[in-house]
């Protein structure tokens, strides 16, 4: 069961610190004083459920080693301080699209690295220069005879 609390930071009375505890995870949002507290708690719930589905039982290590993926999820939910999506299926489909693009990009980068390594190993430019030099020498000796 999740614990939820609201607390006013002492730095600024215009802000409200809201958090929920899920096992060992604490999800904290700092919002404007005028925000609906129940809506923010629901937003935290949506965020945690989305992470839970993406990481199959989210834990601290998922947050640490996949911060960019956490940002993908949060950016699908909130844009410019406005909540734009709370439907988990839509959030997850966009997340999967982003992961697919990331994997394709990684594969392309690996392909480019492999080609560069192969090119370095083969040294085509050096072989072509050697062939040109040998061809010129062969033509010179052929014209002399």
From TrEMBL:
The name under which this protein is listed is AP-3 complex subunit sigma-1, variant 2
The family note in this entry says: Belongs to the adaptor complexes small subunit family.
What the entry lists under PANTHER family is as follows: ADAPTOR COMPLEXES SMALL SUBUNIT FAMILY
Q: Which InterPro entries match?
A: AP_complex_ssu, AP_mu_sigma_su, Longin-like_dom_sf
Q: What is its main location?
A: membrane
AP complex mu/sigma subunit domain: residues covered: 15-97
What's a GO biological-process term for it?
A: protein transport
